[in-house]
């Protein structure tokens, strides 16, 4: 074969010589010979790999060990060994020798405390001369140390049938060499004996024959070493069962896939305890059918461990009433495996190539590259890219060889290699471009054909030189002046280095290229080669170009440190950067909360800074960037620090009580909200007391669990409980007191339960639904139910369920089969009398849904498949600015409203601002729920549904509640200052309300000063009453800079100040100032306009300046004349219309008048509302009424539960005469109205009748307000027969007269708004049911159209007031909430005037009757 190849080569050379003699040019001859030699000069890749690689081994002192290795190649390789990275000299070593197959034999392993020559890491190295070198994986040789016991067996005793653990712990490498002896004889293996991972011996089901002396032995080479002997005594059965405990708890361990794992959980209990295992909260099947098996004694064996088995394993032991839990973590570590191995590569010199290597493992492996046995050190030409790939730039001939990717992690290592062959430039690469070649060098791969080659490109110059890139341009070669089909390769290298890199032009004919990724201030040598379809031509002359020096920016600040100085601040320190050209001007400190994406920064002049206003017990990252005259430098690395902890700022959530028996109550709760814990919760403090003795408080401190059983209580006694969370800093706020009463007597558990009262079965195709009711005798404890079933016999399968469960679905049954089912109740004494039933599953073809109920007890009703009744009486009690307590009642519960089954309730809530807000939900197991995290001064609606098993109710009627106000949490925004035209000493300040007002803004305070750094108490203060957004300040100094800040306030206090805004007054006054000032009626120099608040309305016809200037006396007289004239005309028209309507009374109008009287007929104090009482829905409905505001003894006046958001103020009157009272009431927490003047008639009688009038379309002049209270406000109820949105004229009757402005009651805007249960009256003011009241709604006469009319009470007969539409204030936008009243709006058409006059006639007669009485 070799001779044939030589002859062929010789022939081709002869032919080449003949062509050379006849060729017209030398270039053509060269190209022709090249094309003929191409195929014969391509070398092939040589297979070179390991057949066997060394593995980790455990050796014993004095014994021999073999490290296997074998390599394969066409030429037999030379094998060498490395230990700990250094080659072994095996020629002169008498203990270590190389075997013929390349394995390493170590005779008589040496190992002592101070001399360990054989232990370490071994690696096999295979070399083929003139080809390359490869290395194997690294194998660890571990030598078992001196036999030593870390713990000795101890004498122990075990009851007959119990379990015992004899400890004998050794190090991990000695554990496989450990064995046990009894009476100095090897212990025979048996199913009751198990050696645990650490070496301990587990003995289960002890018998008398197990007694004796036990010891463990270590066979670590030579004479075995024995431990101390320990005696095991087997005791007779104990009279009292021992306390439940674990003899051996599971411990965390790590395994590799494919290994086995043992997790011991050995209980000391007799009779044997019930034991089960869970992984990550899910119960494991331990019957041995899978990889999990429960061995005797409670040991969990996991065979063939997989990566998915990692997690938390929990052992749960139950014996009687005691339960124990123990946890252990199983970590599964995976050795490195290759997802993509390096591939062999052909290349030319000056090319850039990439060896790809993708690995996986757990923990993630690290990767290093080896070339011909030597580690590749990253440099300018050897780079690690895309985490694991090796990039070689500018290939040279010496780069040929074998490259290996070696991956390593904690549990192993692996290697994979590839060969690189560099061909001559005139030899084309025989294959398509592999993916490992970079795009810059792909153009070399086109095979050349015979023909003339281009000459050298001309005029190569660098047209653009920067610090990191250079642009080169040139002219085409003289041999091809146009050069349209030429491509170019640009070879470049650093001066003095022979390794060239190449960059190719992107398209033919292009005569420029951008060379990037260069080093600054470095000399590079460039040359350009043109290439046509025949191959590359001559090279241009070398061109030397030096890149520019880079601007010296500051380096990273060294020694950056951060430490928390308080729960809300962190101090960061650093040092001056070591590199940089010029002085450091300042630093910028960046910080960001962990988990967030928005970084904040602060400018710092020194070398430290304290960042304040941070969240408590929260991790933040900090970094520093130094600035000099050139700009920002290199950032430091991030340092992470957590702020200090503090006491929790909020109480635990959702505290619930469950009465267990006559002497114990179980408390359950949830932690405080995540943002309020302020640290790691270390425990919870529980305080409880008898309700009858509030001063006698008992404290109990628990762990971090979310439940606590309080025992030792008295029978039939009501106790109150509260819980507070604790951190290492102290105890946070506690919950409200929650009460529960212990039982009078305990249930009996001295006998088994009686038979269940009924059993129902519903057969399906492959399942049977079983439902039942508990035993009739409820005085015996039921711990659960046992369900047995099988074909023809109920003893084939048994399932136990909880005592709360009332149904169960038996799955995986055969169709068309006859099953016998039994049900037994059981407790700790035993199982009760069974109840039998049988059922036949349906065939596959049966798709009917006919239910079959088999009822044993004749008195047991068929379960109702209809949905459950929704909860009723939903109430929302406002507790704070972000918390509302929701309470309700359940008509399906007994009268005492105690929950004894497994039902639960779902509470949902939302706000209508914005309108597309989604519902939020939460589950509760009691008849109340505490909703937290709400927005201040916001109206929320709530509803509740109940779920029991698979049955759920519809949502209940809604209840509404508006959270209390809170001080503004943001300053006023968009503060601007402008000079008033024509008055340079007067400026106008404008602003916008704060974005987080948290309530109705009652005023602003403007601070201004000429010194921005002055103390705030030295600034001049300008108060602004009401919600005005502009204010004038007069008599300022000309040509002076002023600084302005604004602060908003509401009923809860002052908000933060805005940033200071600077304004400079003009330099000179205008010439027409005095005439203008005199004409405007100014109060004189130094005076400022009076601030009349937001409710001030300019008089009709008066010219009122926007700054509060008074009107002239002439305008006031004209206004008085107009008001008197309008009043007289109005009275005359009303009298004429009333007389006209009286004469036109028809039967239809009489019916409507009667209906109105049924609604408003409370002139007498005996209410006749019983005639129209709506149907009773368990709760007692209270009729809507208007209560006196100031005279009511109750500090929380009873108001309507409407969807109108209310704040802490009542209705503000229109009259400017009430202005002083308005301002006085604005800061009142309860918001009681001030006394109003009374008419003569009302003064004599102590009361005034109220008349309800329709609203008109006047501008908003009053607002509906409420009094904030933690008590519940009774509301009007609507029965099924009354439709709220369609009621006509919801007029309110005359009542006891309040001493202030009237309160407007507006009906709910939706027919499903919840009716409210009357609250328990507070001690300060009990609710008096004798007060006159009338239902808000009544039945309408059939056949008549209904109209919705807005109404408000007019409380003073002696003076007229404009109609008062309801304005609904809310945060943040009034318009959003006002939409809830749109259902109430109506406009009158001309044909409806007659109907409205009929109502007016009825009202006038009622008014006459009251006056004459």
Explain what the structure shows.
The protein is mainly beta. About 10% of the residues lie in helices and about 35% in strands. The strands form 25 sheets. Strands 11, 13, 14, 17, 18 and 19 form a 6-stranded mixed sheet that branches. Mean pLDDT is about 75; it is low at about 1-40, about 440-445, about 850-865, about 1070-1115 and about 1145-1390.
Q: How would you concisely characterize the structure shown here?
A:
With 1413 residues, the protein is mostly beta strands. It contains nine helices and 90 strands.
List the helices and strands and how they pair.
Elements: H1 2-22, H2 26-41, E1 48-52, E2 57-59, E3 65-67, E4 70-73, E5 78-83, E6 86-87, E7 96-98, E8 104-106, E9 120-128, E10 132-143, E11 156-159, E12 164-166, E13 178-182, E14 185-186, E15 193-195, E16 201-203, E17 212-218, E18 225-226, E19 230-235, E20 246-248, E21 253-255, E22 261-263, E23 266-267, E24 274-279, E25 282-283, E26 292-295, E27 299-302, E28 311-319, E29 322-332, E30 334-340, E31 345-348, E32 353-355, E33 358-362, E34 366-371, E35 374-375, E36 382-385, E37 389-392, E38 401-409, E39 412-423, E40 458-465, E41 470-475, E42 487-494, E43 501-504, E44 512-515, E45 523-532, E46 535-539, E47 543-546, E48 561-566, E49 569-573, E50 586-593, E51 600-604, E52 608-611, E53 619-628, E54 631-632, E55 639-642, E56 653-661, E57 664-670, E58 683-690, E59 693-702, E60 707-710, E61 718-727, E62 730-734, E63 738-741, E64 756-763, E65 768-775, E66 784-791, E67 797-802, E68 807-810, E69 818-826, E70 835-840, E71 872-878, E72 884-889, E73 904-911, E74 920-924, E75 928-931, E76 939-948, E77 951-952, E78 959-962, ...
Parallel strand pairs: 2-10, 11-19, 21-29, 31-39, 88-90
Antiparallel strand pairs: 1-4, 3-8, 5-6, 5-9, 7-8, 9-10, 12-16, 13-14, 13-17, 15-16, 17-18, 17-19, 20-23, 22-27, 24-25, 24-28, 26-27, 28-29, 30-33, 32-37, 34-35, 34-38, 36-37, 38-39, 40-41, 41-44, 42-43, 42-45, 45-46, 45-47, 48-49, 49-52, 50-51, 50-53, 53-54, 53-55, 56-57, 57-60, 58-59, 58-61, ...
Helix pairs in contact: 1-2, 4-9, 5-9
